[in-house]
Amino acid sequence: MLIFWVCSQPFARSVRASLAMVDLKSSAHGNGPGSQAWHGDDANKKLLHYSPWNGRFYFWHRHRLFIFERSRSYGELGFTREEASISYFGRNPNVLKELLDECRRHYLCLVKNKTCVFEHQADRWKPSKSRSKRDMSTVMLNKKIKKMLVDDISEFLNPETRKWYSTRGIPYQRGYLFYGPPGTGKYSFSFSIAGQFNLDIYILNIPTLDNHSLKTLFAELPRHCVVLLEDIDAVGSKRIVGSNKDVGQSTSPPQTPAAKMVALSTLLNVLDGIGSPEGRVLIMTTNHIEYLATALIRPGRVDMKVEFQLADEDMISQLFSFVYDPKPTDDCELPQLAQEFVAKVPKLKFSPAEIMSLLLANKRSPGHAIASVDTWMEKIGEERKKLARTNSWMLDGVDGF
């Protein structure tokens, strides 16, 4: 928050030491503070962002002289640690508190209507990106299940609910398990939940963690947030990070090196331990619920299990209507085309993501999308066979090793 505010101030444009970075987060027109455009064939391409760097910088603000310092040091395993500080010539600490509160308000304006995403680097949280909030209506899920989940989370986040938990000595936490094939909307719905309730989302990819990093990261979670534990079936199993475990018909999970493995006991401790943050909404996702330990998903740790299925008739219809959103001037045949599309696509055979890819490839022509269904199904079938063979070879190689 402090660095974002400093970069918006006039003095930041004239400091003697600056860090120049390609700005992937600014608007297309480069109107953000400290941004400049490369004037080539495309003036809006590869925008640059400048910020004060590696030194001490003086500036005046509200008739007071402040000092801003920023530096970066290298820690273990080559990871960097950035430090920033602010001070001023005076004795009243409220001056600095007021300045930091101004930084906070400035930052909240920048991320208004956005969801802040945090990912981990080793055992430290790192802001990843701020993305526009995803409206719940854009996630294709059974309407009854969607309403049930939204109502449950809304009730949990109600201030009165916190008091209810407190008076009874019950840990103020809520856990959900989203399971089902890949491409069925588990991540998308988790992201939309964060946007719906104006929460930041902290993403933990289990196959990339070890026991120490998991405990450290959980200890640094804020009080109110969405915690997304991806690929929870990797806990306690031996898997190769990056292997494609989601294809083929194998009944045994892929493998991971022992050094990169979270023990089940460690995860249970961080979920139930004294230091586990209250007020957090925990969402665990898996493509293989059959691999999960009963102790991990028992009531109290997981309060609600939700299956994300392949697209049924209603979901296929929702996807078609979403892409070809009817307008008053549109052809009145669109509802009939939707029925034709639903009739041609087999039920519970394809994920919403797969169907969406077909519709987006024909976003200008619903008729062409319908005509392309047979060719598309044949292509998907061939891709699945190829991935299944690849997965079989990988598992054979692991067994041989």
UniProtKB/TrEMBL annotation:
- Chief subcellular location equals mitochondrion
Record's superkingdom? Answer: Eukaryota
InterPro entries, per this entry?
A: AAA+_ATPase (IPR003593), AAA_lid_BCS1 (IPR057495), ATPase_AAA_core (IPR003959), BCS1_N (IPR014851), Mitochondrial_chaperone_BCS1 (IPR050747), P-loop_NTPase (IPR027417)
Where is the AAA+ ATPase domain positioned along the sequence?
172-312
Q: Which SUPFAM superfamilies match?
A: P-loop containing nucleoside triphosphate hydrolases (SSF52540)
Q: Name one GO molecular function term.
A: ATP hydrolysis activity
**Which positions fall inside the BCS1 N-terminal domain?**
1-139
Database matches in Pfam families: AAA, AAA_lid_BCS1, BCS1_N
User: Topology relative to the membrane, per the entry?
Assistant: Single-pass membrane protein
A cellular component term (GO) from this record?
A: mitochondrial inner membrane
The alphabetized UniProt keywords are: ATP-binding, Hydrolase, Membrane, Mitochondrion, Mitochondrion inner membrane, Nucleotide-binding, Transmembrane, Transmembrane helix
Catalytic reactions on record: ATP + H2O = ADP + phosphate + H(+)
The places in or outside the cell where this protein is found are:
Mitochondrion inner membrane
What family does this chain come from, according to its entry?
Belongs to the AAA ATPase family. BCS1 subfamily.
**PANTHER family hit by this protein:** BCS1 AAA-TYPE ATPASE
What is this protein's name? Mitochondrial chaperone BCS1
- Please name the source species: Bimuria novae-zelandiae CBS 107.79
